[in-house]
């Protein structure tokens, strides 16, 4: 009750400072909760999909088994790459001569790598949202609290000047406002700063693992096409099936 009384009886400037810091604190904890759930959802299936890709399954088998991880970021990136392969086969863009296959495959792998970069960027964007706010709160809240502290000390000295005495009753309200502003500034800044560092590390780790999954899928695609071209005594296409 004493703390609430001090806040209610504080000056208008102190009230504005305290209100901003309280809003920052509530928003910070909201962002922390939301980001925690986002990262937990995003990481679902990532390890399992990487394990499947490492087994060296053929693409049809692999595409069938990843359906259980639908709508996870890892599945979306994998689907984007496999969709590019399916589109290629539909368009009939494979070379008809084995001598050209190595050059064609190199160009197609580069195309898949560009698709991987686009897919990862698209899936990482939602995870990055909210992190700038945590950085802003972590950097600015202590200074806002410091402003409230300075203002409270100025109020205390003003009261000393008006009353001509430096008794505890004269300076206590201003000093109390100053200390409350400092405490709230730190209360908002410390969780925000810690959460920003924590989620930044998790974001970097998730991006690295997502790229690793994409590379494993691209390796599967490369092996699949190499099996087709290196089948002993079998052409890449029958003459009547070769694309024009």
How would you explain this protein's 3D organization?
The structure is a single chain. By secondary structure, the protein is mainly alpha-helical. The chain has one domain. The chain is 80% helix and 0% strand. It has helices at 2-8, 12-42, 46-54, 59-65, 73-91, 101-128, 131-163, 168-229. α3 runs parallel beside α8. The longest helix has 62 residues, at 168-229. 27% of the residues are buried. One of its GO terms (biological process) is protein import. Keywords: Cell membrane, Membrane, Protein transport, Transmembrane, Transmembrane helix, Transport. Belongs to the exbB/tolQ family.
Short key terms for the protein model shown above:
single chain; 244 residues; mainly alpha; 8 helices; 80% helix; rod-shaped; disordered C terminus
Could you give a quick summary of the protein structure above?
By secondary structure, the protein is mostly helical. It has helices spanning 2-8, 12-42, 46-54, 59-65, 73-91, 101-128, 131-163, 168-229.
Write the layout of secondary structure elements.
Blueprint: H1 2-8, H2 12-42, H3 46-54, H4 59-65, H5 73-91, H6 101-128, H7 131-163, H8 168-229
Helix pairs in contact: 2-7, 2-8, 3-8, 5-6, 5-8, 6-8, 7-8
Subcellular location: Cell membrane; Membrane
Organism: Thermodesulfatator atlanticus
Domain MotA/TolQ/ExbB proton channel: 111-210
Number of strands: 0
Low-confidence stretches: 232-244
Strand residues, percent: under 5%
Number of helices: 8
Largest sheet: none
Q: In percent, how helical is the residue content? A: over 70%
Label the structural class: mainly alpha
Instruction: Kindly report how far apart the N and C termini lie.
Output: 84 Å
Gross geometry: rod-shaped
Average pLDDT, all residues: 80
- Pattern of helices and strands: HHHHHHHH
* Count of discrete domains: 1
Rg (CA only): 30 Å
Domain MotA/TolQ/ExbB proton channel: 111-210
Main location: membrane
Subcellular location: Cell membrane; Membrane
Keywords: Cell membrane, Membrane, Protein transport, Transmembrane, Transmembrane helix, Transport
């Amino acid at each position: 009750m004493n703390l609430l009384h001090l806040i209610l009886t504080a000056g208008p400037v102190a009230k504005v400072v305290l209100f901003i810091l309280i809003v920052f604190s509530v928003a910070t904890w909201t962002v922390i909760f939301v980001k925690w759930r986002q990262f937990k959802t995003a990481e679902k299936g990532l390890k399992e999909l990487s394990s499947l890709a490492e087994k060296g399954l053929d693409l049809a088998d692999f595409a069938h088994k990843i359906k259980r991880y639908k709508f996870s970021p890892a599945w979306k990136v994998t689907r984007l790459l496999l969709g590019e392969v399916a589109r290629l086969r539909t368009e009939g863009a494979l070379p008809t001569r084995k001598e050209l296959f190595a050059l064609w495959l190199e160009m197609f792998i580069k195309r898949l790598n560009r698709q991987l970069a686009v897919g990862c960027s698209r899936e990482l964007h939602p995870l990055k949202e909210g992190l700038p706010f945590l950085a802003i709160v972590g950097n600015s809240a202590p200074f806002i609290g410091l402003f409230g502290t300075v203002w409270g000390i100025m109020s205390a000295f003003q009261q000393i000047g008006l009353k001509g005495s430096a008794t505890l009753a004269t300076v206590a309200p201003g000093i109390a406002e100053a200390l409350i502003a400092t405490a709230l500034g730190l209360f908002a800044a410390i969780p925000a700063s810690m959460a920003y560092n924590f989620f930044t590390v998790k974001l970097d780790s998730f991006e690295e693992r997502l790229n690793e999954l994409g590379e494993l899928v691209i390796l599967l695609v490369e092996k699949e096409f190499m099996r087709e071209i290196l089948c002993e005594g079998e052409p890449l296409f029958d003459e009547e099936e070769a694309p024009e």
